[in-house]
Batch of 4 targets.
Target 1
Amino acid sequence: MPLDFNEIRQLLATIAQTDIAEVTLKSDDFELTVRKAVSFSNQAPLGQATVSGVVSSGLTSVSPPGNQLPDANRVAENAGASAPVNAPSPIEQRWVQVQSPMVGTFYRAPAPGEAPFVEVGDRVKAGQTVCIIEAMKLMNEIEAEVSGQVMEILVQNGEPVEYGQPLMRINPD
């Protein structure tokens, strides 16, 4: 059963809208396993689908650290609050997050005892390796998608990371 990229994308979108936790498709040519990583907060469950075997670097704008869900600002406004709590400064709103494209273990350096790829304050170029995520005994280099200055490193060396988890923040040029 050959599937093209658009059919796989449609399948992932459909699964993301359901309560299905895991799906595996097998054929002679390939195997595709989709698992939802589900975490719970006080407000509502959050789910994100992960695809094993597919690596793409995640890159999003930084959202306010105090907001757990996109609707948190609307809920606060409906309750009579005049401004969101913990709103980032205009400078922080420009920062870009480097997100984990997979579940694995975060490493700042290419090998134990070696210097980290980047430190806070370092300048990086688009395409430069900023860390490694180890997944299933494979080392996956994560690259910066923008040029700029590393402002924060949010994960400690050797810590497990989840799909979509922010790893560091870059102030783009």
Target 2
Amino acid sequence: MTERPALSLPAIHASHGGCWLRDGFSTRGVGKGDAIVAAADTPLLMLNAPLVASRLGYPDLSGLDLLELYAFIHPARFIVPTPKGLAHALGLDEPAGDDKVPLLLQEAAEALLATCERDDWSEREGAWTALQSLVRMRWPWATLLDPRIKKPERAERWLFSRLPEWEEAADRPQPAQVVLGETAITARLAALTGEGAEARPAQQDYAREAGRMFAPRSGQRQPHVVLAQAGTGTGKTFGYLAPASLWAESSGGTVWVSTYTKALQRQLRRESRRAFPAERDGKPPVVVRKGRENYLCLLNLEDALQGGFTGRAAILAQLIARWAAYSQDGDMIGGDLPGWLGTLFRKRGIAALTDQRGECVYAGCPHYRKCFIERAARASADAELVIANHALVMVNAARGRDAAQRPTRVVFDEGHHVFEAADSTFSAALTGAETIELRRWVIGPEGKSRGRRRGLSARLADVASYDEEGARAITQAREAAEALPGDGWLARVVEGMPSGPLEELLSAARALSYARDESGGQEAGYGLETEIVQLDGPFIEVAGRAQEALEALRKPLVRLGLRLEALIEDGPDWLDGPARARIEGARSAIGWRSDLIAGWVALLARLGGPGDPDYVDWIAVERSDGREWDVGLHRHFLDPMKPFAETVLAPAHGVMMTSATLRDGDDWDSAITRSGAPHLDIMPRLFSAESPFDYANQAEVLIVTDVPKGDIPALAAAYGRLIEASGGGALGLFTAIRRLRAVYGRIADRLARGGLPLFAQHVDPIDTGTLVDIFRDDPRASLLGTDALRDGVDVPGHSLRLVVMEQVPWPKPSILHRARRLEGGGQAHDDRIIRARLAQAFGRLIRSTGDKGHFIVLSAAFPSRLLSAFPAGTPIRRVTLDVALQSVSGGVSGLDAATTRDERIL
């Protein structure tokens, strides 16, 4: 490490262990009150202002945030937003303690500012121009940067002229029909794992089994389906990338690999570099695809830069523009945009800079040829490997604009989540939030609304002027959309003063939910649900009027879609390539929303009649922290794999679902059912490989029997003592946010004073991905979270040595769960869900042969029938908290692997 001069500006650092202020050349501990006064008097250097504000209990805190400076100087570069992460990124010494952090902040500020004066600053282009705007916005760092960044000799190009354009390409021919030989697959796997790597027979068998999904299909609607369970450490990724890369290379086709978590997407992107070249024929063979709402919309950004954003949001827009110039693919959610950047601005603006509402004008946009979304879509059409997520694969299969781009060879990694993704994708929700978005999409801005958002009339003005019937359909759709909920709908519904037939329906639905509520008001922080049965006449009449209003909107939209289709088939002279692409996009969006409304109409049409056995319908009032935020009617398939089979499996040629927790113990029945294959009368191929880890000596499961259920002080004390015993490195999993917050509030300060930082979802103003990055980077840190941390989190053993679950992860007793429980065998259905959750959580603990750790469940009533969730050979004991603390302090017990399960749980 090299010593650097320190900027003499005062700096502050606050943690749960205390506050430290450095002014001049000395650092002193101060109370929160003094720290707040100092921050109010003068701008202070700090790291992650929202987190410091949270620690001080002073939400209005502002100052010179080093993360903002880093985002300006090094856009699209990764950094863990902690003092340690900052020190590593800048080549500075780690602070030895909290009291040394303020000096580090001064040194880091000087190091970053000095970067701007170096000739080798790789992100110099565009910085001076952006700074001029930030000076006018009075960004705190602007005055310090201004003398450091020289005005360029030539005017810098504007961002929108610097971004490269994508190019049109000819359609690819269909892939060749090839059969992969086992020898070739094994050889490709050996090349991927590297010379000298130890041969793993289980991985080789897995790769050969994965290769079977690429065989030519023998009949329509008869894809090759492979279900492969592979324990952690088998080497699944290279196992399926070996045959996938071989098939793509041999056939000229595209393989889609679908994940459920963004963490696995990032991992796949890294590891695919060993299977595919960086370029082939000037094009990237590997492309990451996500939904449109994940990417930066350049038209939204332009609007923000030109006055659409004000205050702090305008500063965010400038930093996003800096990032856009250096981003790999424009992915704002889980890509190379730092996840912490949005939280520095309280997340204002991030969503507004993406295409959240499907209002894209396609070729009508001046930035269409530079669009990140369009570039990714075209790149995926020519790619050999497309890395996507389950939802996108399903949506693309269901309503993809180009049938030739729909996935036909798909590997569903994290395959145990396919059912969950299908359940979400193929459901219908007639709610206030959904209907008001539809209104805005049709009508556009109303009243005092600002921004570039435009309704159908503005987006299709040229069509309206050319085609009289199309113009009439647009006008009728706009008039019909007036019946949808408008701004302020929720307040009117709550007050019993709805406006229009849809708000009347929502008001009646809310009243029915409260009338049938049997909680006695004890769970005011949670949502209400009631079945759509035994409805009275007035409710059905209200639903009938809402149905008529929706039909009045759907019909002109369908006619408009047909007019656009006719225009494309027999276009006028002005319909050039870009205009054709824009109308194609509009037709696709209209078709999607017509189908959405048709689903709502079908839901309302059955009210008062006999139930449809394929569906589960209910009414819900959504609440959070005692505040209502949505009301509506919901419809889910009882078995969402039925539409999945028709939409995804039937057109496919080969599908593989793989996971470490695909089946329930040794039982394949649930995995087969949840694959969708039975709906096509297909028997999938089954493969299983056990994890190579020595669980008898690497892990231990402890069921703690003396922490009373519902006793928050006892629960918090148990968490605090366990984290202290392990020296940090603990992942705490909760089934309720309320209990998570209560435990965190009781133990965070105490742990911090012992040098054990604690972070938590739903408490710290940091996104989940960044929280995991912080946890991974600090072996003494611990992290509390909910379901999002139970699966897909890959943290090395030196940082994750202990997993603690506050209780058995019982399924939420919702109406939908009750229906599926009845269909799936009652208690056996619940047990399968719980065992899967336990297995997924346990899978966070041991990720390599060198890992060791404990898995603890704080539940005296843990049923023995659930113990099969844990890998065979894992020591399992029911113990008191004191005994558990001794085990955690002393390390893994190393009980004899030959001990029977019955003996181990006594």
Target 3
Amino acid sequence: MTRPADMPDGARGGVPETATDGAPGHARASAPWVRTRLRSAPSSALLAAALAFVAVLLAAALPRALDRGADQALRSFLDDRGPAATSLLATSTSRYGNESPENLDSVRDALLARTGDAFAVAPAGTVQGTQAAKPRSLANPELPRPDGVPPGLDLLYLRDAAAHTALVEGRWPSGGAPDGPVPVAISQQAAQTLGVRIGTVLQTVPSSSDPMSAEVVGLYRATDEADVFWTGLPCLTRACASNTSTVPPQRYWKTAALVGPDGLDRLGPWGAGAEDFWRIPVDTDRLRADRLPVVAREIAAYVGGPTASALRGTTQRSDLRIASQLPELFKQAEARQQAVAPLAAIGPAGVAGVAAVVLCLAAALTGDRRESELRLLLARGGSPGGIVGRLLGEGAVTVLPAAALATALALWLLPAPRSAAALLAAGAVALLAWLAFPVRAAVLLSARRRGPAPRRRLVAELLVAAATAAAVFEVRQRGVAPAGEGLDPLLVAAPLLLALCGGLALARLQPVLVGMLARAAGRSSALVGFLGLARAARGTGGRARPPVLPLIALLLAVTTGGFGATVLDAVDSGRLRVARLAVGGDVQIAAPYGGALPPAMTEAAAALPGVRTSAGVWTDDKAFVFGTVQGSTQVTVVVAEPKAYAELARTIGRGQFDPALLSAGPSADAPVPALFSSDLAKLAAAGTYRLSLGGGELQIGSVGVVEGTPARPGPGGAVVVLPAGPTTARLPRTGRPDRWLATGQVDGDRLREAVRAAAPAGTAGQYTVRTSAGTAAELGSDPLQRSAVRLFWASVAAVAGFALLAVLLTLVRAAPERAALLARLRTMGLRPRDGIRLILTEALPQALAATVGGALVAVSAVALLGPAMDLSALVGSNVPTGLRLTAPPVLTQALGLALLVTLAVIAEAAISGRRQITTELRAGDQR
């Protein structure tokens, strides 16, 4: 017997490496295995390479996307805090009589020498100089005094100030007699505000210190007032309006002026002391989330550790002090990353699970297609090891180049400073794609076991169920991993384990349920439905039941999408609720402190489309209740019309009460009915209290307890709610509301336009308009949250694609046997459209059952794992722990995937069904 031309000689036991071609004395070398296989089945090789390419590309891209999102979120978080918060500030007492710019430079060089290992200095560079400890008040009578308080002048020496300014008039300060005025340069804007010009001598108010004066010799203008160079420096670019600490506060002007290098020794006498400072801005654009702990340790050592001690010795300044907000900001950033990490990993974990199932399913399909070939090679003397080795070589030529190309493409498309995680994930997926079919072939070629296979399967299923129960129990008992522990593997694995359990359970239930439908269909005269359901119940290829892997892939897809979509829906709902509580409704108009809203403004706002509930309220935070256990308690008083305010509180969900409690009008000598917050009710001692507010007093009596008020954010605080009416209208300023709150779908731009139109002339900017939509958008503007959301939806798309591929592979796996059946039935009079109906009846039950089962598993995952989830990091504010079950997110994911699967089955049946039947009819039935 001659062997096939594509049979490898190395796979045969004792067959020589050459074979005769029929001519005596002639021999030829056999064709290489890989080349022969690629020539005989190029489409299969291309599909295997394409599947490996897509899987490896996603595996390498997801870690890079996670890293890039974490880095961008960290940098955005720090940039939002401003350059002052992300800088190191070193200060030291100025060395009176021995101070010079060179001395400041030497300290700066010593400070910079300790940077660069874990963190670097921002390109803007350091800012250094010397500042007088205190400003002096100016006595010139021509200077403006808003409330009779003379303006204050601070003096500084600022290194490299000329590089950030433009000299408008005069000269830079230098020289000056030791006993004469201090030459200074002042900003042009400050000079215009104070009425100062070149040559003006600024006299100081007499005090306990020696009298001094300053002469304006130059006017400058900041090149860019928004430059980080001016951050934290006192009023150097313009005069600032300040308030005194007296009661009531009084306004006055304050500014600062620059002195030259030779004026350093005069800063101490001016301010009763002087302080040298060096501000070192940290380059946040070079910080990485994975190196944050290392940078935090370096900064901590720089601020108050061994680095700080070494710097004191190097600079010979024992009082050198270094401060920064960075250590605390790093703690907050790390806590945010660790809180989001488990939720951000659910989507990629689902992709990994479904991709692994699809790769195994592809290996099973290839094994079924080539089983007869492999057994023929084994029967003709090939060893199992030799055959598997040739299959490994075959896979290395197709899978490994595609995996390498996909990895390189992912690294190029998503540049990031670290690649270890991406390379590790890509290597793992490439290894699975390469070894899946050889391992399957080794199982097929091995001696068949005679053990009880159903028992082994039952044991494996029980082990999976036990692991799932343990993971869910542990998550519910301890909750999500505490802050500081990072990624919680149990929270990520629990939904996938639940999906795996659901797939295994559905694999046992589906044949029974579909078999019952098949028996019911068998009682009718229609043949197509019975045949399709019967094949769906028993599987194809001689199997006793349908394959499990497609079910698991679909359940993983629906569970991952449904669970994650429920989380994001809860995040959106929580963010909107937090925003509504902060605003006091969906929209709010607030008057300036001590003012009131014009009636025309509230009427115009209430007439806008979308307004459902509205209420005008008057508030006062500086009222006192007398008669509590403390004697007197400061409270927030809210005066509103009871019915409208009660409806608003009910809609928002804070401070609900029965309006009848406040609706009853009191008699002339009866106390005014009032609602106390729970915090105030704990301090109540008597039934009647004296309320002092707005310059008047009321006798009030508690008629109920409320939990907070929509007029003030936050659940805590002492609040008193009074009814608007004749009694409260007698008090000063309580007749007109200072806030208008409303609920409904109100257009914020139209509301602001109505406020501008109704505001008195020149006062439109004094009224504040807030919307819950705008506040929720601010809460959701964090790049960390946006990155997690984008990654999840990308993962959902990838999971859906792999699940769809699993369905198509299942259809392809059953295609040969189905084509033979359809060909036989065609010869018996089966119409083409009946053949398509048969394919749909066979394929759809498994897909639809998997989507329904996945939806149930997703609901179970939310119910079982939801109470342990803390969504505060994604919401952007503290919210109660727990995840509420809602049907729309789960149904959307399940129905969407079911629709995709149905369309794929219909397309496959319409496109390939007719071609398969025709091919079978032409080739004849050889089975």
Target 4
Amino acid sequence: MTSVVIEGKHSRRVSVLLIGTILGTGLVIAPAEAQRRKPKAVPVPTAPVEPTAQAANPVVGAEVIRSLKVSGNQRLEPETVLSYVKLKVGDPYTRDAGDQALKALYATELFADVQIVDDVANPGAITIKVRENPVVNRIVLEGNKRLKADKIMPEIKLSAREIFSRAKVRADVARIIELYRRQGRYAATVDPEMVLLDQNRVDVVFEIHEGDKSKVRAINIIGNSHFSDGQLKGQMATKEASLLHVFSSGTSYDPDRLAYDQQKLRQFYLTQGYADFRVVSAVAELTPDKKDFVITYVVDEGQRYKFGKLDVQSDIRDLKPDTLRTLIKVKPGDWYNAKTIEDTVDTMTDTAGAFGYAFADIRPEFDRNASKLTMGVTFHVNEAPRAYVERIDIAGNTQTQDKVIRREFRLAEGDAFNGFQVKRSRDRIKSLGFFQEKFEINQKQGSAPDKVVLEANVEEKSTGQLQVSAGYSSLEKFIVSLSIEQANFRGKGQTVRASADWSTYSKSVSVGFTEPYLFDKNLALGFDIFRRDYRSFNYTSDNTRNTTYNQVSTGFQIRLGIPLTEYWTMATRYSLSYDQVSLDKNQYYSDLNGDGKLECDPIIAGQYLCDSIGNRLNSSVGYSLAYDTLNNRILPTAGNRFVWNQDFAGVGGSVKYLRSTAQADNYRNLGAGFVLNTHLEGGYILGYGGNRYDTAGNLVDKIRINDRFQLGQPQLRGFDIRGIGPRVIRYGVNSDGTINYAKNARVQEDPLGGRAYYMGHLEMQIPLGSGAREAGFRPSMFVDAGSVFGLKRPVTFPASQTKNGINRPAKDANGNTLYYADSSLNQNNTTTTPTSFGIVQQQVYPAFIEQYYGGTWKPRVSVGFGVSWNSPFGPLRIDIAKAIVKQAGDDTKLFSFNVGTQF
């Protein structure tokens, strides 16, 4: 024990507590008032010396204890101190008894110093002098930047209001250093300091010096002849520090990762037929500058084996060996692969589960022939009882009601166990989207060998989604879009959604609700109500746009879903909408027939607007038939989905058509985290009823533009919204009569859509490291292809128009050009609205020419890559796609993204 006196304005006596040199750190003292700005630490001169029993008059023989007294105690009662020692009045007192009493008192860790004194003037009067350890007031961390306090504090065992001891501080220093070593910071040091306070209290301060991460400078492999160093390093989680791995977390040294890499090497060799492979040694050495590590592996590859005889033995009567042999996907003569053996055992276990044997024990027995280098394998199915579901336990759901989870189970309590049904239950619960992805149904032994308990330990996640977007357009001015959806409303699995969009020229609002289990029956009922108010644009003579027409749509849809089998579902629906499309008659109507009746003038308004105006009531019924075996409807990795839809418009109303669509998806897990999605879809609309004519008397398509198929972003990446398919484009005409095909010279572009379409894509999901995957990053590469077509070719403006025998010339009464039909015409590039046609308002327009594009079935193709990210502010999707096959008139788009948030 050493006492140090610090002199100053506030002179006080402090004690330096010494910590052993094993950790290379000392515990020093700072004044209490210097909490933020501590003085220079007092150096530790020596290691502590364990005190021994002292007596004013050394005892040579036994001496009777006449009295026992305790002094120096502050918090502890004398009786408490005496209870820790075996000294009693009347017992003989020896040096050994005193030493044992000292050890017992120090073992309590309640005392900083203890002395046992025998009074010289009164032999046998024993006094135990103690100095109590202080009480910890608080724990303070300083210097920690890479590891936050919430990561370190749970590892510190010393806490406020506990008795301070050197042993506890040493242990906490070791724990903190171990945390930093797990991060690869082997240069980290921790200096514990103690700040004395009044009332025998202390603040314990851990001064942390984090240091830099210790990187892996090089990985050396000795003994490999069949595989290169690069191939083997590629199997390891640890990577060499280089520019190629600048963003990798595997370049820091981690002893746990070193052991993991040895297992990875062994797994790799076992999949390549080297059954005798072993890692002889794995040594990590610090470089001379003590900053990085060099790892050296010594391996023994051994001989390469092939499969020998493969057989199955079954002690379960219901599991025939011939049935199980069909599950073996390798044959004698193939190179030995331990992973194939594991997969075969898993497949056989699943098959046994399908027969009701939840705890089937299938063990591969190996017959190694070292001379022939073959490995025979016999899969032995041990006897096991058929199991029944004793109980289904659900835990972890704080918001979601039990019945929402329980109704997705394909098994009930008392049913015969079926492994496939357990997996199907897991997939259905995952597909709800209410819980984290890492969800499994655990199987545990029940109260008897033939009983099994199913445990569903769920971890709920945010099921609400809020999407907000805002922007500015030179045409639409400010644009704001808001949508909110709760997919697990009131914890009952119900879906409630609402959305609103607003800009200078458009407004819309919609609400919807879905009850997946109506009256607790397996029936889904939902509805949507909407109202949309759009105002479209057109160019005027000064090449700006103004409002051309108003469209107001109001309607609703009601849906009912009925499951037919486990994988087949049928849904029916009824939709009713009322569309009102109108134009300003003072600007866009003319007396086309000369009879004084104003009609929409396609020269002024455009063929698209004239075809759209009017009031229409669309009343339709429809149904969907779906087949779904996906293992997860939210993020599938395996399975198929097929959907057939038909909608019949004409149950009353003025719109008549039959729309049919089909789509199919296949997800295939290719292993190592790669998932391939193949998607195909297509559709056709059949119109019926009387013929339709445009304002010039020309026969036009029976299907109106609002009911046709449109294709582009986001379905076909690499193209803009409605970027492909039939369209009419108006181009400006130069003064010499030639057409200006520049994109910014397009006077008007009207995507017309089509009666038929097809589309497909191949998309490969690319795996990332565990860190990126946990952060929600999911990159993919894709190829998209598709087309929309089948529209009756619209009439573009010729040199003159005729309706009901009345000729509409291409020039007005003054000889000015109304429009162009041929770029070879070299006429004045001014179009005026002629008074002879009864147009109310005189206006002047630039000359233009209309051309029709996109009426072909030929595919458009794009390639690209994208990233989905569950970001802190919501799900984000970014796609970069390049159109490599396109047709004239198509609008392409390289970059697209969307974002939302969850709650």
